[in-house]
Structures are given as structure tokens and as C-alpha cells.
Amino acid sequence: MQTTLKLQDKEFVPYISEKEITEKIKLLAEQLKKDYEGKRPLFIAILNGSFMFAAALFKELEIEAEISFIKLASYKGTRSTGHVITAIGLDADVTNRHVIILEDIIDTGKTLYTFLPQLYNQHPASLKVAVLLDKPEPRKFDVPVDYVCFTIPNKFVLGFGLDFDGFGRNTKEIFQLKEE
Ligand code: IMP
Ligand code: MG
Predict the structure, then answer these.
(1) Is residue 112 within 8 Å of residue 144, measured between CB atoms?
(2) For 2-41, what is each residue's pLDDT tens digit?
(3) Centre of ligand 1 from the C-alpha of residue 33, in Å
């Protein structure tokens, strides 16, 4: 177990232990088994942040299921529509499939709010969202969050796949930005 973690000029302290993460992910896998047994669901994990969460969850999942990884690239649209999000690597056909999105953390909700309609357009049989961490406080966009491992306050966290400026993903536990 690491004690504190320094990245650039920031200090992070241990927040959620490896054991707690593992336990919550096991519980989620059990719940998903109950909800999706026989439905052959398709998991869509959003890179980069969700790679560890997705791997940990998928190992625990005792049902027949598929997983696909995508990356969301956001850019300013040329028209007044504002932000546009394209899904890179979405090769699976989601039509009539039971789809579960896997995200590391949901913050303002903007990413999913922009992306989910693109999936609905392809008429999945059902569409749910599973997140490792939910920060409800900064939410600006109303998105459904169906499965949550941890609900956390509005403080920056990293580790277990989550980054600060690209770094800090490679830990077994989750750290939180230290109070000044
Ligand atoms: P949203 O579109 O505002 O919901 O942002 C979601 C994305 O912001 C996540 O997928 C993360 O990449 C990033 N993010 C939000 N909060 C944190 C945090 O506390 N630590 C690391 N990344 C975060
Ligand atoms: Mg992310």
C-alpha cells in the first residue's frame, strides 16, 4: 500500500483501498449477473480511464458477455452545435443488444450526455451505465447512472486507471487530492 503520491506539485493521499475496490466490483458483477443472465450483454468500456475497472469487473462476471473498448474524441463542431463527440473503435453492432457502458468516473455528465444519444440512435434493446465512481455534486448534464461502485464528494481523485494529466493511473488503490 502506497502512502502518499506526488505528481507535479500536487500531493495525493490514499482514499479507497484495493480491498474496498475489489469487494465493490465483485458485488457489481453479482448484480449484473442477476440482471443480465441469458441476455448476452455487450459492455462498452470508455478508454482510457476505465481500463482497470473494465478488466477487474469482466474477470468477476460469470455470464456470457462481450466487451468492446472505445475512445471518445471531443472537438468543437464547425456549426453552432458546440461540442461533438466521436466514438473511435465502436465496431460492435449495438442494434437489439443489451448494452452497458463502463466509465471510470462521472463528473459533470457532459461526456455521456453527448455520447449516449449516438447509441440510442442505433436502437439497442437496452442501455445502462455502470461507473466506478460517481461525483453527483458537479453534475450539469442529466444522465442516467444505473450502477455505481462508489459515490464520492467533489474532490479530485486518481489511480486505478484514473489520471492527473495523463499520469497516476498505475495504482491498485484510489487516491484523493490532499487538502491544502
Ligand atoms: P464528465 O464529462 O464531466 O462527466 O467527465 C468525465 C471524465 O472526466 C472522466 O471520464 C474522467 O476522465 C474525467 N474526470 C472527472 N473527474 C475526475 C477526477 O476526479 N479524477 C480523474 N479524472 C476525472
Ligand atoms: Mg474518462
Answers:
(1) no
(2) 689 999 999 999 999 999 999 999 999 999 999 999 999 9
(3) 27
**Residue 91: per-residue pLDDT:** 81
Q: Residue 143: helix, strand or coil by DSSP?
A: coil
Structural domains of the chain, ranges and CATH numbers in brackets: 21-174 (3.40.50.2020)
All three cell numbers of 30: 453479482
Task: State in Å: Cα 49 to ligand 1 middle.
Answer: 8
User: Is 142 part of the annotated catalytic residue set?
Assistant: no
Verify whether ligand 1 is closer than 6 Å to residue 152 (CB atom): no
**What is the per-residue pLDDT for 77?**
53
Which ligand sits nearest to residue 47's alpha carbon?
Answer: 2
